[in-house]
Amino acid sequence: MSLLPLATETWDAAEQEAIQRVIATGRFTMGPEVKAFEVQFAEHFGSKYAVMVNSGSSANLLMLAGLLYHQGLDIKPGDEVIVPAVSWSTTYYPVHQLGLDLRFVDIDADTLNLDVERVAEAITPRTKAVLAVNLLGNPCELAKLKALCDARGLVLLEDNCESMGALLDGRQAGSWGLAGTFSTFFSHHISTMEGGVVITNDEDLYHIFLSLRAHGWLREQPAHSKLNVEVDDFMRQFRFVLPGYNLRPLEMSGAIGQEQLRKLPGLVAARRENARTFQSLFSNHPGVQIQAETGESSWFGFALVMRGPLEGRRADLNLALREAGVDTRPIVAGNFVNNPVISHLRHSVSGNLDAADRIDQEGLFFGNHHYPVSEALSRCREIVDKVAGAA
Q: What sign for the dihedral angle of Cα 326, 332, 334, 336?
């Protein structure tokens, strides 16, 4: 067994029983279990509405697609969306796939999140939205970003897929913008096998999400929805009003999600306890810089950026950690502009991306968990000391 794996399961008998409960009904596609999870999820995260989908990646797609069909928003193909240079691929792909243009901005070297001053400098007449990413559990400076977006007439969106349970000023990350996304993939804070959620307080956007999630049809639309058209009950089930997708989750995922959501406060509390150990071990180490916490991180993982005696020696440390049984990864996808796929994406870059390049060249992270890992973290410190001392 690994000394410190990247991810471990958080299920027990409750999730197994939830699966059996669904099997006993004979209904496996999206239904009442998914709806119950959505209601509970929205309440937990302080939002009016939640829509579950089949992955966090699909949640990002749904969130961005919804903007194009909202009558109160003037967003169309060719408009710009500001994004951080460091994130996962499916932060960016929906922007391009929907005909919008990516505008990359550098991150803050300490928090690893969007640099708000750089965002302000990046705004052009074509900019319509800012897609903030709360990286590795750490909230962005969301109050400042919201104030900036409000002042400049921009839509604020949050990709909170890595940061479920994070707080800023007592408010849940993912709930600061017009909409926010979450992931319930295996390696994330809670797991529904595969799964994702979009939340919003905007009722019209919620109705659009419901339609786009399932083929663009009228089903699930309330009587007062602006998407409704005059049609008899027979045809209503098969009347299509938007160019939608099939992003529906499984009924099992909704049932599992309800059990996982009950455990979320305890899971996040345990991760924060591990983080206190991590911070005490690494915060003043001469060979590595750790992520500066904004608000209350939910600590998806633990990032290290090489400096001093370890600068330029990530490969050496990575090998030593892996040989000791510590699973490691780049910090998400590093500077995404350095990926070959960038040649296929409509994009521009505002200024330099020096901090993102440093993450790309000098960064790695290893996992955090819902159980104590202090011994494993102490061993990681020993390994870092040893490699740094060999410089």
A: positive
Kindly report, residue by residue over 247-258, the tens digit of the pLDDT. Answer: 999 999 999 999
Our answer to whether residue 44 is catalytic in this structure is no
Which residue out of 44, 96, 188, 369 is catalytically annotated? 188
Query: What is the side-by-side strand order in the sheet with 363-367?
Result: 288-290, 301-306, 363-367, 328-329
Q: CATH classification of 13-259, choosing from 3.40.50.720, 3.40.640.10, 3.40.50.1820, 3.40.50.300?
A: 3.40.640.10
pTM: 0.97
- What integer is the mean pLDDT of 219-235? 93
pLDDT of 391 > 80? The answer is no
Q: Which two tokens stand for residue 286?
A: 């001469």
Confidence band (pLDDT; 50, 70, 90) for 233?
A: confident
Q: Would the pLDDT of 142 be above 90?
A: yes
Distance CA 62, CA 54 (A): 11
Fold of 265-389: Aspartate Aminotransferase, domain 1 (3.90.1150)
